[in-house]
UniProtKB/TrEMBL annotation:
<keyword id="KW-0418">Kinase</keyword>
<dbReference type="InterPro" id="IPR003661">
    <property type="entry name" value="HisK_dim/P_dom"/>
</dbReference>
<keyword id="KW-0597">Phosphoprotein</keyword>
<feature type="transmembrane region" description="Helical">
    <location>
        <begin position="217"/>
        <end position="245"/>
    </location>
</feature>
<feature type="domain" description="Histidine kinase">
    <location>
        <begin position="417"/>
        <end position="627"/>
    </location>
</feature>
<dbReference type="GO" id="GO:0005524">
    <property type="term" value="F:ATP binding"/>
</dbReference>
<dbReference type="InterPro" id="IPR036890">
    <property type="entry name" value="HATPase_C_sf"/>
</dbReference>
<dbReference type="InterPro" id="IPR000700">
    <property type="entry name" value="PAS-assoc_C"/>
</dbReference>
<dbReference type="GO" id="GO:0000155">
    <property type="term" value="F:phosphorelay sensor kinase activity"/>
</dbReference>
<dbReference type="InterPro" id="IPR003594">
    <property type="entry name" value="HATPase_dom"/>
</dbReference>
<dbReference type="GO" id="GO:0016020">
    <property type="term" value="C:membrane"/>
</dbReference>
<keyword id="KW-0812">Transmembrane</keyword>
<dbReference type="InterPro" id="IPR035965">
    <property type="entry name" value="PAS-like_dom_sf"/>
</dbReference>
<feature type="domain" description="PAC">
    <location>
        <begin position="354"/>
        <end position="404"/>
    </location>
</feature>
<dbReference type="Pfam" id="PF02518">
    <property type="entry name" value="HATPase_c"/>
</dbReference>
<keyword id="KW-0902">Two-component regulatory system</keyword>
<dbReference type="InterPro" id="IPR021796">
    <property type="entry name" value="Tll0287-like_dom"/>
</dbReference>
Amino acid sequence: MVKSLFSKLSLTTKVSLSLLALLTVFSTILTLIFYLYLREKIIHHYHEKLKLFFLQMESLERYVKDDLRPIIFETLKNYPFQGDFILEAMSTTHISKRVFSYLKKNYPDIEYERISFDPINPENKIKPFHKFLLKLKASQPYYQGIFSWKGEEYFVMAEPIYVSKDCLKCHGKLKDAPHELVKIYSLKRDFSWKEGDLMGFTVVKVSLKGALNEAKALALSIFLISLISSLFLLLFLEGFLYSLFLKPLKKLTDHLSDLKRGLLPPNNPVDLKREDEFGLLAESFNAYMKHLEEAQKALKENLKTLETLFESITHPIALINKDCRVELANKAYKENLYKKCHQDLLLKVFMEKRPFSEEIELPEGKTYQLFLYPVFAEKNEVIKAVVLLEDITERKRMEEKMILTEKLAALGQLTAGLAHEINNPLSGMLLMLRQLQKNNLSEEEKKLYFNLIEQGLLKIQKLIQDLLTFSRATEIRKEKVSINELLEEVLDLSSYLLKKHQIIVKKDFSPELPEIYVDKNKLEQVFLNLILNALHAMEESEDKILTIKTELTEGAIKISFKDTGPGVPENIRNRIFDPFFTTKPPGKGTGLGLSVGLVIIERHGGKIYLDKTDQGANFIIELPLEMEKHGNY
Ligand SMILES: Nc1ncnc2c1ncn2[C@@H]1O[C@H](COP(=O)(O)OP(=O)(O)O)[C@@H](O)[C@H]1O
Ligand SMILES: [Mg+2]
């Protein structure tokens, strides 16, 4: 409550109030110290005074006791008519009391007493006031200090009085006491004092009331003076602080709030003609505002550039959140009709924090490549995703065309040899048919010929069927196949060509390969090209060995085609996978085989590359085991 009230006050008032509190505390402490100092001074003063006084009285008492009294006693013995006791000359107490009464005129505030527990003169009886003296121990010769009685303070010095033998003459048995004394004080009983008893005290005391009151008044006036002067100081300080700090500050804050409310243009400088820190502050404030304005301008321009850039991207592109809600989209995205949310893929992007891509085929014949990129916040967290659509219809069509062209070329090579291959058995079969027409054959011979003809025809039928299935299948379809069997089929298809070129095929197939989902026909095409490439490469070679090896590696099936040809020259190694790159004469090569192979293998999520070997070429294909059963590739 007080705190919130305080926080609402202006800076100057805050400073002034704090200072006031501080000064009050300060002057209180100062006054207190001053008062305590004064008090100490007063006590010291009285101490010195009383000490002297005490000594004087003590000396007097000693004089009476040791010098005067014995003589008077002796003298009185000689003049018995004078009586045996003269109070004015023999009682230490009486004399000192009298002497004191004269002294008192000069020391009005000092009191002197000789008191006793059992006095001769009842006036000298110990009073309740003297109770504090009883707390003294006998060993202490003096008691001195401040003592409070009924709200008044006293400085006291006291000395205990002990009974000695010669005291008992007057303070002892009634019969020993001088008659005169008994008469004066009308004593009626004995005193019971024994030698060594504590009889009473000699007390000198002074009331501090007057002196302390004076000191208090002095301290109070000092306190008031310091308070009033600090108030004046504060008033002055407030004015000073106001013009020094608050005024320029207010000007700055007013300027700022005007800026905030849009009453002033941002580049309007605050007008503060001062040379001090506030002037500097205003200057840097103005500079900062100017800088801010420029930065804002630059930012706006940058934003505009970015917007133009964003809008002029012809690919549909958008920023989406976890729920597929579009937060920002370019023109192409807004105009694009395809808006489907790929929730599973999006989830993967958010979970695995990396980009994902998918091919989407639309019923109307268009193909899109969908890219999803993660957008990171701080702490490596994915908060949004960028979705980008790329129309790859044309590219796909081109690729398909290239695949087909290459396939046809390979088929051409296969069929060219095939005609010759078929022609030879056909001539034999024709001869056999003519023999059969002659009708002069035994049943046994007829059966043998028919069988031979049937076998030949079946062989030709299989060859043609294989070729047809290879050439026909164009639709994209994945099925579960054994890679080893697939290789056998391709080797079958090209067997007569390999035979014709006297190529030895070495098969090193791993028996433990699992079956995987692939586009059988497309993969056959890739294998066929590698086999035909090896065949072409080894045309001039002495040894013509093609080693085909399959093996299971971690998460993949690895297939290698190694030949004993001259290998791929270093200078063309990085071009052999380019479309239309060939070193072969027209008719023999299209230059598409490897590039098409690359497309097909990559569509399967695999890799194809030329490995280093000592001799010949070694092409490697790696196909992942974990492959999507369905969907496009
Ligand atoms: N096994 C191989 N040995 C040496 N060179 C090869 C081998 N396979 C491919 N090449 C080189 O790569 C080129 C491209 O091959 P490819 O893309 O299949 O097209 P093409 O066979 O129609 O020339 C070939 O022209 C040849 O120079
Ligand atoms: Mg080729």
